[in-house]
Automatic annotation (TrEMBL):
<dbReference type="InterPro" id="IPR001057">
    <property type="entry name" value="Glu/AcGlu_kinase"/>
</dbReference>
<feature type="binding site">
    <location>
        <position position="51"/>
    </location>
    <ligand>
        <name>substrate</name>
    </ligand>
</feature>
<feature type="binding site">
    <location>
        <position position="138"/>
    </location>
    <ligand>
        <name>substrate</name>
    </ligand>
</feature>
<dbReference type="InterPro" id="IPR041739">
    <property type="entry name" value="G5K_ProB"/>
</dbReference>
<feature type="domain" description="PUA">
    <location>
        <begin position="277"/>
        <end position="350"/>
    </location>
</feature>
<feature type="binding site">
    <location>
        <position position="11"/>
    </location>
    <ligand>
        <name>ATP</name>
    </ligand>
</feature>
<comment type="similarity">
    <text>Belongs to the glutamate 5-kinase family.</text>
</comment>
<dbReference type="InterPro" id="IPR011529">
    <property type="entry name" value="Glu_5kinase"/>
</dbReference>
<dbReference type="GO" id="GO:0003723">
    <property type="term" value="F:RNA binding"/>
</dbReference>
<dbReference type="Pfam" id="PF01472">
    <property type="entry name" value="PUA"/>
</dbReference>
<keyword id="KW-0028">Amino-acid biosynthesis</keyword>
<dbReference type="GO" id="GO:0055129">
    <property type="term" value="P:L-proline biosynthetic process"/>
</dbReference>
<dbReference type="InterPro" id="IPR001048">
    <property type="entry name" value="Asp/Glu/Uridylate_kinase"/>
</dbReference>
<protein>
    <recommendedName>
        <fullName>Glutamate 5-kinase</fullName>
        <ecNumber>2.7.2.11</ecNumber>
    </recommendedName>
</protein>
<dbReference type="Pfam" id="PF00696">
    <property type="entry name" value="AA_kinase"/>
</dbReference>
<comment type="pathway">
    <text>Amino-acid biosynthesis; L-proline biosynthesis; L-glutamate 5-semialdehyde from L-glutamate: step 1/2.</text>
</comment>
<keyword id="KW-0547">Nucleotide-binding</keyword>
Length: 359
């Protein structure tokens, strides 16, 4: 079998591998592992981002309702992750495939060095034909240190590895024009540009064990597609989902891609938490930076330097209402930027190659 991609990241949502009663769905996990083995045999590199630790933990231990939510999640995830990875390892072993557990936190992507360490780790696994199975390290990731959900983590990993596609397996066939259960709703097969147009369709409803919901999934997908990586959202409970999807035989939602971004730009796109300074720009500069043309941020469009930064830092660019316009690497520090506010014929503060415009 020949597929259109060489390297894909597949995100498996908790619901896909959990039964309605909350117990892990062993036969579904086996099916997915069997499918990954088929893809690998055809020469495809596959990286899994699998949720399910908390759900697996629930099958082993019951936590009292009054227990603090963060502590309960730590308890369930720490027990459940062992069960989850052991299940994967045994199933992959039956195909003669090694898999690896990679548990990460947002901090592991904090600066470029951490980011490259993470990338090197995944690359060495792939070079040795190992299937990395990534999950958030829920035991130490608490509250503000957490990813929004594993969709965000999967988008980050796909961008970091320069994957040819990101496949999100959820419990619905894709994004619908309304409640997926309603017969009046239609499946959106192709989405391009920002998610503003679909925000009205998506309700806040989450799947039974899901964390982020469809809206965060859609905005992550749009961001990943804007970096040049197509995203496919489909139902992980469909039999033979991965080969069917990759053979173009499955109705689902696809986020169309724009021009492929450089590796540095992909890193900047996911560096919101690493931003150390903020500059404010006027409407003209905002338009130039977001219209899709290759424009750098010039001091003439800067109206204020809101917080300090050094040359080489990631900075946040905001508009006059404080909305984020994008992220970029500063070519010089805040002191020089302040001196040059509003001045013409000055060097760009952020070069186009190092600017990522938010949607
Ligand atoms: N317009 C929509 N189209 C598809 N799903 C939607 C829509 N609006 C809300 N949803 C809900 O989003 C859920 C999937 O998101 P989420 O709970 O984050 O899944 P996962 O556990 O796979 O990450 C679906 O179960 C569905 O109920
Ligand atoms: N890290 C958590 C999963 C969090 C999460 O994002 O879940 P989901 O929305 O089902 O992908 C776990 O393994 O239980």
């Amino acid at each position: 079998m020949k597929f259109p991609y060489r390297k894909i990241v597949v995100k498996i949502g908790s619901n896909v591998i959990t039964q309605d009663d909350g117990l892990p769905d062993h036969s579904r996990i086996k099916d997915l592992v069997d499918q990954v083995a088929v893809l690998r045999a055809s020469g495809l590199e596959v990286v899994l981002v699998s949720s399910g630790a908390v759900a697996s933990g629930r099958s082993i231990i019951t936590v009292a309702e009054k227990q603090n939510a963060v502590a309960a999640r730590q308890l369930l995830a720490s027990i459940g992750q062992v069960k989850l990875i052991n299940t994967y390892a045994a199933l992959f072993e039956a195909h003669g495939i090694n898999c690896a557990q990679v548990l990460v936190t947002k901090e592991d992507f904090r600066d470029r060095l951490h980011y490259l360490n993470m990338k090197n780790c995944l690359q060495i696994l792939l070079q040795h034909q190992v299937v990395p199975i990534i999950n958030e390290n829920d035991v130490v990731s608490v509250t503000e240190l957490m990813f929004t959900d594993n969709d965000e983590l999967a988008g980050l990993v796909a961008a970091m590895l320069g994957a040819d596609a990101l496949v999100i397996l959820s419990n619905v066939n894709g994004i619908y024009t309304g409640d997926p259960k309603s017969p009046d709703s239609r499946l959106l097969e192709e989405i391009s540009g920002s998610t503003a147009a679909i925000a009205g369709y998506v309700t806040t409803g989450k799947s039974q064990f899901g964390r982020g919901g469809m809206l965060t999934k859609a905005s992550m997908a749009a961001k990943t597609a804007s970096l040049g990586i197509p995203v496919h959202i489909t139902n992980g409970k469909t039999d033979n989902v991965l080969p069917l999807l990759l053979a173009g035989k499955l109705a689902h939602t696809r986020f169309a891609t724009e021009k492929r971004a450089s590796n540095k730009k992909k890193w900047i796109a996911h560096s919101e938490n690493a931003a150390s300074g903020t500059v404010q720009v006027n409407e003209g500069a905002k338009l130039a930076l977001t219209c899709g043309r290759a424009s750098s941020l010039l001091p003439v469009g800067i109206t204020a330097v809101l917080s300090g930064f050094q040359k080489g830092d990631i900075i946040r660019v905001v508009d006059e209402r404080g909305q984020t316009v994008g992220l970029g690497i500063a070519e010089y520090g805040a002191d020089k930027a302040k001196e040059r506010i509003g001045q013409k014929n000055q060097r760009p503060l952020v070069h186009y190659d190092y600017f990522y415009a938010s949607n």
